[in-house]
Specification:
Enzyme class: hydrolase
Largest sheet: 7 strands, mixed
Strand content: 15-25%
Transmembrane segments: 114-131, 138-163
Domain Lon proteolytic: 456-639
Bound molecules: adenosine-5'-diphosphate
Subunit structure: Homohexamer. Organized in a ring with a central cavity.
Mean pLDDT: 84
Shape: elongated
CATH topology of the largest domain: Ribosomal Protein S5, domain 2
GO biological process, one term: proteolysis
CATH class of the largest domain: Alpha Beta
Structural class: alpha/beta
CATH architecture of the largest domain: 2-Layer Sandwich
Distance between the termini: 57 Å
Helix content: 25-40%
Oligomer: single chain
């Protein structure tokens, strides 16, 4: 299974501390992202959830210092004394120094000391002149009056000059202490800034409202209300925007402008806020843009923005099931155990994880790379191993109904995650909503379903196989075909189950009618006038949608059986598409379908030969791979009991 022999994961080497070495299965994507960052290109990562998009970006973020020199900088906001609604934001190279905390030199016209002395002298001379001729005894009073005149004069001059200056420059009564510049952001190493696409304020910045009695206090000057955006914080680094599906169009335009101009002003985003009247100068924001989302999300992006993204990388959702890749999966298990502080896993447990990775990939030949899902299963299996609470819920009772703990402990009472714990999480579907819905449906509905496996051969009755929704659970579908004579000319095909399996039905009826008319089937021949027949097709008790054409072979057999009146054996279920030449073509979900046939107790399951590489479990049911319809016919028709006249 793996290139190393071990009993438990404790014996395996420690995972690399570097996140970049921990990413598995996405080697090409990692290389492209690293090269893109080195060359300052913009990137979009697309792929299914949990394949490692954020992990790759985070990993690149860890090693950003490897990408050459970086000049640290800091961002300050200053008041604009000419227009307070237009605060000034500056990006300054170097480290932030405390002396910035000084109050800026304001343009107050405070009188100089020479002017004051001159004023005083003038005041004294004036009072001397006024006091001339005053008798000696009034001299003390005269001196007091003189000093008072001097004081009042000086005071009035100072006051009017201060008030005049501040009024001219501010237009309101701001406390001069509020005019200090403020430090908005300091960046000492190359930044990786992450922001969700829907969070406009976080992405582009904003100006806080200045409410009465609220925060910030009333009268806080605009430069102290600036919130820097992620695009500005990512200056000289990387801006990582995830959830691109949710990015409003107007934000896309701003980001486009920022990418083009490498600068963008901040203004108040809420039109009802006092911040809306404020706008800064354009603030430098020279960043590499990395975005991520699911494949379909890309259609939400406007073409000009998408054009600006140089690398568009689609991450893989599966890798080949090779020894090398199984080893990588083992490395992933060890990482998850270490990173999440889980109990060690036994060798069998690791093999079970590989088996589930095959199931989730839909093939024995592949391993899933939807590793978040796999990581969640491992974490839950650890919980099952840890405590009996969850084990009890998931059911672990012996035949007499007594709780039977499965937790495997070694001599030192150490807990291990075993194959049983993992299987339990997988089989009960607690890691997936869809699987639980499908399981509940099957559990509640099976007893009402009229399926009699291995019954007597029947004309026009066959068991097909389907996968229920996105739950990854297969189910058996009974298909019934009946032929009636019609008074109207032409063959009438009636699907009495509505929209179900439209593709399969159209294809199968065309093919079966052709084959029956041509009489080339390896079956007893019969003259049938197809010109006045009504073919009724029912997918009995099937209520969920059946897409695709994987029921074609089943429907075709049922129509041929009904037209020729030859019974079909009932010990098999069949899945497979057909082309018009009668070749059996591959289908999806083969493992889930085989599971379903097994669950209902069928002895045989017929599948396309092309799908044999995908089959994981071969035990418990006879699996018959077929390439053509001619191969199927002798396997399924009960030729011993035919009552029709031969031509
Ligand atoms: P995405 O962004 O594609 O939805 P994440 O990067 O958030 O997925 O992956 C979630 C978690 O799943 C990671 O933290 C890691 O534990 C695991 N994981 C996903 N992809 C990988 C990978 N390629 N290699 C290793 N671990 C992975």
């Amino acid at each position: 299974m793996f290139s190393i022999k071990f009993k438990t994961t404790e014996e395996l080497p420690e995972p690399s501390p570097r996140l970049i070495d921990q990413v598995i299965g996405q080697e090409e994507a990692v290389k492209i992202v690293l090269s893109a960052v080195k060359n300052k290109r913009n990137v979009i990562l697309l792929g299914e959830p949990g394949v490692g998009k954020s992990m790759i970006v985070k990993a690149v973020g860890e090693i950003l210092s490897d990408f050459g020199e970086f000049t640290p900088y800091y961002v300050i906001a200053k008041p604009n004394l000419k227009n307070m609604e237009r605060p000034i934001v500056e990006v300054i190279d170097g480290e932030y120094k405390e002396d910035l905390k000084e109050i800026p030199k304001l343009n107050f016209k405070t009188p100089s000391s020479t002017t004051l002395i001159l004023i005083m002298v003038a005041a004294i001379l004036l009072s001397q002149y006024l006091l001339k001729g005053i008798p000696q005894e009034y001299l003390l009073a005269a001196v007091t009056i003189t000093s008072l005149i001097v004081l009042i004069f000086g005071f009035v001059i100072i006051l009017t000059s201060i008030m005049g200056a501040s009024k001219a420059s501010m237009g309101n009564n701001i406390n001069p202490m509020d005019l200090k510049p403020v430090l908005l952001y300091e960046c000492k190493k190359r930044p990786l800034v992450r922001a969700s696409a829907y969070n406009v304020t976080r992405l582009l910045g904003d100006i806080k409202h200045c409410p009465l009695g609220g925060r910030p206090p009333l009268g806080t000057p605009p430069h102290k209300r600036i919130i820097l955006g992620a695009i500005h914080e990512a200056h000289r680094g990387i801006l990582y925007v995830d959830e691109i599906k949710t990015m409003p169009l107007e934000v896309q335009d701003y980001i486009l402008t920022a990418l083009q101009d490498k600068q963008l002003p901040i203004s108040g985003r809420n039109p009802n806020s006092s911040g809306a009247t404020v706008e800064t100068n354009p603030i430098p924001c020279d960043f590499i843009l990395i975005m991520s989302g699911n494949m379909d999300d890309v259609y939400n992006l406007r073409a000009p923005l998408l054009d600006r993204i140089d690398y568009k990388i689609v991450l893989k959702n599966k890798m080949d099931n090779t020894l090398e890749n199984r080893d990588k999966l083992l490395q992933f298990i060890v990482q998850e155990i270490k990173n999440n502080n889980l109990n060690p896993m036994t060798y069998d447990g690791c093999c079970e994880v590989v088996r589930i990775a095959q199931y989730l990939a839909g093939s024995k030949d592949k391993l899933t790379l939807r590793l978040r899902l796999l990581a969640n299963i491992i974490k839950m299996a650890n919980d099952v191993a840890m405590g009996k609470d969850i084990e009890e819920i998931l059911g672990n009772f012996d035949e007499e109904g007594n709780y039977k703990p499965e937790t495997q402990k070694d001599k030192n009472n150490k807990v291990y995650i075993t194959a049983e714990h993992i299987r339990k999480v997988f089989d009960t579907g607690i890691y997936s909503m869809e699987k639980q819905v499908a399981l509940n449906y099957i559990k509640n509905f099976k007893r009402y379903k009229h399926i009699v496996p291995n019954d007597e051969p029947k004309v026009g009755v066959v068991y097909g196989l389907a996968v229920l929704g996105a739950g990854g659970i297969g189910d058996v579908t009974k298909i019934i075909v009946q032929i009636l004579d019609s008074k109207n000319p032409g063959t009438h095909l009636l699907n009495i189950s509505g929209d179900i399996a439209k593709h399969s039905i159209t294809l199968a009826s065309a093919l079966s009618k052709k084959l029956v008319a041509e009489k080339k089937l390896p079956l007893p021949k019969k003259d049938i006038d197809l010109n006045n027949k009504e073919i009724y097709i029912q997918f009995s008790q099937s209520y969920s949608k059946i897409d695709g054409d994987s029921a074609t072979a089943a429907v075709c057999l049922a129509i041929i059986s009904a037209l020729l009146d030859i019974p079909l054996k009932q010990d098999f279920a069949i899945t497979g598409s057909l082309d018009l030449s009668g070749n059996v073509l591959a289908i999806g979900g083969v493992n889930e379908k085989i599971e379903a046939a097994k669950r209902y107790g069928f002895k045989r399951v017929i599948i396309p030969e092309a799908n044999m590489v995908d089959v994981i479990e071969t035990e418990g049911i006879e699996i018959i791979p077929v390439k053509t319809l001619d191969e199927i016919i002798p396997l399924v028709f009960d030729l011993d009991n035919i009552k029709i006249e031969q031509n």
